[in-house]
Amino acid sequence: MPPDHTAPDPDTAIERGIFKQLLGLGRLKPYLWPEGNVNFKVRSVIALVLTIASQFVIVGSPFLLGRAIDSIELASDAGFTAQLTLLMVGLILGYGGLRLLSILFSEGREYIFAPVAQSSQRAVATATFAHMHKLSLRYHLEKRTGKLNRIIERGVKSIDFLFRFLLFNIGPTFLQLGIVGVAFAAVYDWRFAAVAIVIVVTYVAFTVITTEWRLKFRREMNRQDNEAAAKAVDSLLNYETVKYFSAETFETDRYDVAMGGYMRAAIRSRTSLSTVNIGQSFLMNLGLVIVVVLAANGVLRDEGMSIGDITAVVLVMSQLYRPLNILGFAYREIKQALTDLENMFTLMDRKPEIEDRADAVDVGHVTGHVTFEDVHFHYDKDREILKGISFEIEPGQTVAIVGPTGAGKSTLSRILFRFYDIAAGTVRVDGKDLQSLTQSSIRRALGIVPQDTVLFNDTIGYNIGYAKPGAMQHEIEQAARDAQVHDFISALPKGYETMVGERGLKLSGGEKQRVAIARTLLKNPAILILDEATSALDSATERDIQAALDRIATNRTTLVIAHRLSTIIGADQILVMDKGRISERGTHDELLTQKGLYAHLWSQQEQDA
After folding, report:
1. Side-chain half-sphere exposure of 590, counting CA atoms within 13 A
2. pLDDT digits 0-9 by tens, 195-212
3. CATH 3.40.109.10 is right for the domain spanning 370-452+526-608
């Protein structure tokens, strides 16, 4: 039985180079550029055009201000004639207009692209969430829910970050550098362009190298953060157990140790930032000084440059530096966002252990004929759980499975629900091989009351109605009556609107069990599985619910996995499992006369009673 495969575990995925990670952004194309969605495509194109246009405006405005300063100097020397005054005012207003226009382009881009970005995040988040429900039970049992949730959260948040920084910050910055290089070479000479390009390229290289050095601290921070979050979630989900063993201090100490590791990594990350900031400041100021010296030299040597040109080159370089001020942060966050996104996509690439065949069909109307033929099963290859199990349940029959703990009783229900595929043999429903049927259709035909009942952190009414979306209130209440829980619910101050708490912790074990029974009764399945369904109930309540279950089981195929043998005396057939095999089978009276394992278990329970 192969595990979920084809993708590495996102918790241990090896971080690739940033350029390979950037190539992975192509996977976002179906969400950014969805087939048939002309609106999204038009918005994306307009946003791109506005981004490019804004860079030309940003670079052009300082040159206009330089001309305005020159016009002021000229008017001061030659006198403020009407023509010079008009030119000066026009240039100043033109500079202000271009500055305003760049803001309008930038904000207009955000306004137009926001629906695309948010819809893309929603689509990716929904696709990942849906995929999580397709992965096998084995995968979820082996993984910590807290860690998986953080992977999804970080992956979705990274999309928004990458949109804002790659598309609207870093990308336009390099476009702006190209425009500045051409403008400097055309308006002044090649030396200005060379200085701008060399300084920016050196700045970027220095930032990337030093940030890569610092990323090891960030990775350690994330690891410690994951560990702390996992410990916190695990502890809070087991709140009652912590209280049972007075382990609050132990749990707090475990969490504090994990947070201590995070603290040390965070300190190293923060202190190393000073080195990066000093180097970046040196390069930025060096470039600014060089272009000012070149411009001043051009003015002094009368090489066609003016005071306005000095102002223009200073402003152009300052504007070019402005987005670079956050390059270290942006690079680190972009790389982390790419890693988070890659981890999420790694999770999405993990193929489910159990998949429908290409030719799988819906089961259709189910009469409830269940057959196990020489079924072998193992969770781990070195430990076989079922060793050639064979039995048959006719439509409408009630068959009980009993035996010692670990005999493989509950495994039968998981196989029927196809949470796992068998290693050998055949399981049939109404004569159809289980593996030839779609999982959704077979699960619609099955209903189960599990031994360990877990409820959603919502109302009692919601938890019962979960079995039948859109169920009317009277249907929910009738199911509750059949489960002997309606009177209890009605006596509560908020009735069916009572919140049950995380995992149903506000209810007792018996109350949760009865809510679970009501939920399954509302589903009205063709095949009913009761896995120790009354194990959490007192004797009086058990008798009442058992009577209700017996009525519901009439003319319905029922598989009862039982510990209390008194609850299955009336079963049409009882299968006794021991060490992965069926050691005995028959009715209650027949098994007692055999004086085997069943008779021994019965005798023990009689004595305990």
Report:
1. 11
2. 999 998 999 888 888 877
3. no
Average pLDDT over residues 449-477: 88
Tokens at 430, concatenated: 């109404």
Cβ of 600: how many Cβ atoms within 10 Å? 11
Q: How long is the chain?
A: 609
How far is CA 231 from each of CA 250, 252, 254, 255, 345, rounded to the nearest angstrom? 12, 10, 8, 6, 25
Contact (CB, 8 A) for 68 and 60: no
pTM listed for this prediction: 0.66
The pLDDT tens digits for 366-390 are 888 999 999 999 888 888 889 999 9
Tell me how far apart the alpha carbons of residues 129 and 146 are, in angstroms, rounded to a whole number.
Answer: 14
Helix locations, 537-596, DSSP H:
539-553, 588-594
Task: Report the interhelical angle of 307-324 vs 171-187 (nearest 10°).
Answer: 160
Give the whole-angstrom CA distance, residue 317 versus residue 290: 11
Q: Give the residue, 332 or 262, on which the prediction is more confident.
A: 262
DSSP code, position 166: I
Give the containing element (helix H, strand E) for 531.
Answer: strand 527-531
Q: 425 falls in which pLDDT band (50, 70, 90)?
A: very high
pLDDT of residue 608: 65
How far apart, in Å, are the Cα atoms of 374 and each of 24, 288, 575?
A: 47, 82, 15
Signed CA dihedral, 80, 58, 118, 223: sign only? negative
What does the pLDDT read at residue 8?
A: 45
User: What integer pLDDT is reported at residue 478 of this predicted model?
Assistant: 92
> At CA 584, angle to CA 579 and CA 588, rounded to 5?
125
Give residue for tokens 């910050």.
Answer: 169
Mean pLDDT to the nearest integer, 156-160: 81
Question: How many whole angstroms separate alpha carbon 209 and alpha carbon 185?
Answer: 29
Task: List the domain boundaries for the chain.
Answer: 18-349, 370-452+526-608
Determine contact, residues 570/546, Cβ cutoff 8 Å.
no
Domain covering 18-349, topology: ABC transporter transmembrane region fold (1.20.1560)
Using CA atoms, how far apart are residues 335 and 273, in angstroms rounded to an integer? Answer: 16
User: Crossing angle of helices 38-78/307-324, nearest 10°?
Assistant: 150
Query: What confidence category does residue 83 fall into, taking pLDDT thresholds of 50, 70 and 90?
Result: low
CB 469 within 8 A of CB 533: no
Residue 80's Cα: distance from chain center in Å? 67
The count of C-alpha atoms lying within 13 angstroms of the C-alpha of 58, restricted to the half-sphere facing its C-beta, is: 27
DSSP state at residue 437? B
